[in-house]
Design a protein that fits this description.
Elements lengths: L10 E5 L2 E4 L4 E4 L2 H4 L8 H11 L12 H14 L3 E5 L2 H18 L7 E5 L8 H6 L3 H4 L9 E4 L4 H10 L3 E7 L1 E2 L5 E2 L2 H14 L2 E5 L23 E4 L10 E5 L20 H16 L2 H20 L5 E7 L2 E6 L6 H7 L2 E2 L1 E3 L3 E4 L7 H20 L4
Helix pairs in contact: 2-9, 3-9, 10-12
Bound molecules: pyridoxal-5'-phosphate (PLP).
Pathway: Amino-acid biosynthesis; L-arginine biosynthesis; N(2)-acetyl-L-ornithine from L-glutamate: step 4/4; Amine and polyamine biosynthesis; ectoine biosynthesis; L-ectoine from L-aspartate 4-semialdehyde: step 1/3
Family: Belongs to the class-III pyridoxal-phosphate-dependent aminotransferase family. ArgD subfamily.
Subunit structure: Homodimer.
Length: 390
């Protein structure tokens, strides 16, 4: 189906941050399959583990105990300080489950007849009917009315507006946001805002649900982006980077939320299968063994500094923002044409929210590779900004 606008290259194999197309051309991958390939391409430790697992068991269903689920859940619980995990296959699925938890918590715990979820401007939560309804982008919603009801929307980083909306909407049972908005243009929820939301949720007995599908799993220089604010969510959907390329999603819950779904309330055929769990276990173990979380923070600082130094004062450059290896470069005008120019220059990245060049390199990026990303990207942006506007 014609659902994607694709660049005209086909990638055949990769190693670390390098990928090669079917014509033998080499690229530096600064996108990682949209924040998915945490360990880069063909990481030897992950490859060996997956080969071993494929030869043992790929899938069994959730009719039986799956010890690798226990193992990955224990690791996610230890890293997050939360208590329980449900495994699924993708980001929207994790978010869909979180929204079900918000509704059922509203009914069971708060006694609400029609619980609502507070969501934010600029949000992206996925493309199922519920998650696209929670999303703020009209392009994602166009053509799919009627949307799923039960959402109230607030501006990001405006605690007073959130409190006013909650006062006006006593049916809200949960506040749901990306700790750092990804598709919306790399817009971080500020530390004080996150801390304020935590206080508001505690005071009003609401669930704080942080979508860390893109910003979680070490990318920002902490295991989870909300750890920069020193708070904990009640519900945290994860996916993208968790399996380093193998589809796996998770809903990680704290004590307020972990008992809401009970037997028969929720399920998935593929979720938590041994292959996906092995990918998750091995991804986290490799990150830990190689110190990749702190490394991502250092590489991100280095890359952002290089980008800021190169673009400082250039007309049409707005700002570089992000945390760790989740970086947006905002320009003053739409810059989708840069994608093909990147391909021509041997550099893969994305453009989101029309005007934001987005970089999400693998966490294994070296200093030399980070410098090379900046060296290939800066001339493209400067040439673009120097062109007369159409
Ligand atoms: C990518 C993304 C999703 C959707 O994940 P899929 O795996 O594509 O369904 C949801 N939330 C955020 C923050 C994302 O970046």
């Amino acid at each position: 189906m014609p659902t994607y606008g694709r660049l005209p290259i086909a990638l055949s194999h990769g190693r670390g941050l390098r990928v090669w197309d079917t014509e033998g051309r080499e690229y530096l991958d600064a996108l990682s399959g949209i924040a998915v390939n945490t360990l880069g391409h063909a990481h030897p430790r992950l490859v060996a583990a997956l080969q071993d697992q494929v030869g043992k068991l790929i899938h069994t269903s959730n009719y039986y105990l799956v010890p690798l689920q226990e193992q990955l859940a224990a690791k996610l619980v230890a890293l997050s300080g939360l208590t329980n995990v449900f495994f699924c296959n993708s980001g929207l699925e994790a978010n869909e489950g979180a929204l079900k938890i918000a509704r059922k918590y509203g009914h069971d715990v708060l006694g609400l007849a029609e619980p609502q979820t507070l969501v934010f401007e600029g949000a992206f939560h996925g493309r199922s009917l519920a998650t696209l309804s929670a999303t703020a982008n009209p392009k994602v919603q166009a053509g799919f009315a009627p949307l799923v009801p039960g959402f109230v929307r607030a501006p990001l980083n405006d605690l007073a507006a959130v409190e006013a909306l909650l006062d006006a909407n006593p049916n809200v049972s949960a506040i749901f946001l990306e700790t750092i908005q990804g598709e919306g243009g790399i817009n971080p929820a500020r530390v004080e805002f996150l801390q304020g939301l935590r206080r508001v949720c505690d005071a009003r007995k609401l669930l704080l649900m942080l979508d860390e599908v893109q910003c979680g799993i070490g990318r920002t220089g902490k295991w989870f982006a909300h750890q920069w604010a020193g708070i904990q969510p009640d519900v945290m959907p994860l996916a993208k980077g968790l399996g380093s390329g193998v589809p796996v999603g998770a809903i990680v819950c704290g004590p307020k939320a972990s008992g809401v779904l009970t037997a028969g309330n929720h399920g998935t055929t593929f979720g938590g299968n041994p292959l996906a769990m092995r990918a998750g276990v091995e991804t986290l173990a490799t990150m830990e063994a190689d110190g990749l979380v702190a490394h991502a923070g250092r590489m991100g600082d280095r890359l952002m500094a290089a980008l800021r130094a190169g673009l400082q004062g250039v007309p049409g450059f707005v700002e570089v923002r992000g945390q760790g290896l989740m970086i947006g470069i905002e320009l003053a005008r739409p810059c989708g044409v840069l994608l093909q120019r990147g391909v021509d220059a041997g550099l893969l990245f994305s453009v989101t929210a029309d005007r934001v060049v987005r970089l999400l390199p693998a966490l294994v990026a070296t200093e030399a590779e980070v410098d090379e990303i900046a060296a290939r990207l800066l001339p493209l942006i400067m040439a673009f900004l120097a062109e007369p506007q159409a």
